[in-house]
Write a structure and sequence with these properties.
Blueprint (H helix, E strand, L loop, with lengths): L25 H17 L3 E3 L9 E6 L2 E12 L4 E8 L2 E11 L1 E7 L5 E7 H14 L10 H13 L23
Antiparallel strand pairs: 1-2, 2-3, 3-6, 4-5, 6-7
Function: Removes the formyl group from the N-terminal Met of newly synthesized proteins. Requires at least a dipeptide for an efficient rate of reaction. N-terminal L-methionine is a prerequisite for activity but the enzyme has broad specificity at other positions.
Family: Belongs to the polypeptide deformylase family.
Keywords: Hydrolase, Iron, Metal-binding, Protein biosynthesis
């Protein structure tokens, strides 16, 4: 278990869709432990493998009293309610903006040993599941912001001390109505 450096906005790995895990082996268990240690060290609610530069569909989470990890996650929206609220990202340190997400979701996937897992989440946990699944699709929460907020966010990022000047193109999530300002 090692705390790893977190990839920052502008790194191409954050805009690349991750591939499914096929081997539930010691290497995967090490990755999950590294994700966990790095997430906890950085004080985050979740962390996806691409944020460590690993293009696999894995993330860890620790929020609203729930903690764990999901391998090859999918999720279904429960109901039609949305939530608007502040959202940040360990790959965009020290910044957050209001983002619209589904209020309730049920995520399904596997644990690091290949056992099936189901996680039902509302509020912050639902936001976290959606956010981290977006990472696995190469989508950042900035892509979910309304046009005016995104413009303000990009201005703030360009002025951030950690920003290296690389601005990737914005992407659309494959998940319909995923956090859009409807």
């Amino acid at each position: 278990m090692t705390v790893q450096p977190i990839r920052l906005f502008g790194d191409p790995v954050l805009r690349t869709a991750a591939v499914e895990v096929t081997d539930f082996d010691a290497e995967l268990r090490t990755l999950v432990k590294d994700l966990w240690e790095t997430m906890r060290d950085a004080g985050g609610a979740g962390l996806a493998a691409p944020q460590l530069g690993v293009g696999l569909r894995v993330f860890t989470y620790h929020c609203d009293g729930f903690a764990g990890h999901l391998v090859n996650p999918t999720f279904d929206v429960v109901g039609e309610e949305f939530q608007d609220g502040p959202e940040g990202c360990l790959s965009i340190p020290g910044m957050s903006w209001d983002c619209r997400r589904h209020l309730h979701v049920v995520a399904k996937g596997w644990n690091m040993h290949g056992d099936p897992v189901e996680v039902e989440g509302s509020d912050l946990l639902a936001r976290c599941i959606q956010h981290e699944t977006d990472h696995l699709d190469g989508v950042l929460f900035l892509d979910r912001l309304d046009a005016e907020t995104r413009k303000d966010a990009m201005k703030a990022i360009r002025q951030a001390e950690w920003f290296d000047g690389t601005v990737p193109t914005l992407k659309q999530s494959p998940h319909p109505l995923f956090g859009r300002a409807n």
